[in-house]
Write a structure and sequence with these properties.
Blueprint lengths: L2 E5 L3 E2 L5 E8 L9 E7 L6 E7 L4 E3 L7 E6 L4 E6 L8 E8 L4 E4 L3 E5 L2
Parallel strand pairs: 2-11
Antiparallel strand pairs: 1-3, 3-8, 4-5, 4-9, 5-6, 7-8, 9-10, 9-11
């Protein structure tokens, strides 16, 4: 059973960098052919895909967020991290880390609330 757990600050000031970590247990982030994603849900809106890091370490980002996003990983601790720069209140929402493949997303973290406010 794979488990994912998000962690990070719940409150970030505008213009600062949002950093979240996803700790993975029950499976390795280097196992082929999985994708490890970040997804968010702004209040009152639908899910928005942010980007992912593949089992190989390569990354793909949403075109709308690409200029502000970086996803990295630490294979020694089996964790992957999201950094979102220059945040605004529009970046407020619940942030999820997930595991997926070409056909489905099969595991989700419980989600963590991030509020951007001064």
């Amino acid at each position: 059973q794979v488990q994912l757990q998000e962690s990070g600050p719940g409150l970030v000031k505008p213009s600062q960098t949002l950093s979240l970590t996803c700790a993975v247990s029950g499976g390795s982030i280097t196992t082929a052919f999985y994708y490890w994603s970040w997804i968010r849900q702004p209040p009152g809106k639908g899910l928005e895909w942010i980007g992912y890091i593949r089992f190989s370490g390569s990354t793909v980002y949403s075109p709308t967020l690409k200029s502000r996003t970086s996803i990295s990983r630490d294979t020694s601790t089996n964790q992957f991290t999201l950094q979102l720069n220059s945040v605004t209140p529009e970046d407020t929402g619940v942030y999820y880390c997930t595991r997926g493949s070409d056909t489905l997303v099969d595991y989700w973290g419980q989600g963590t609330q991030v509020t951007v406010s001064s």
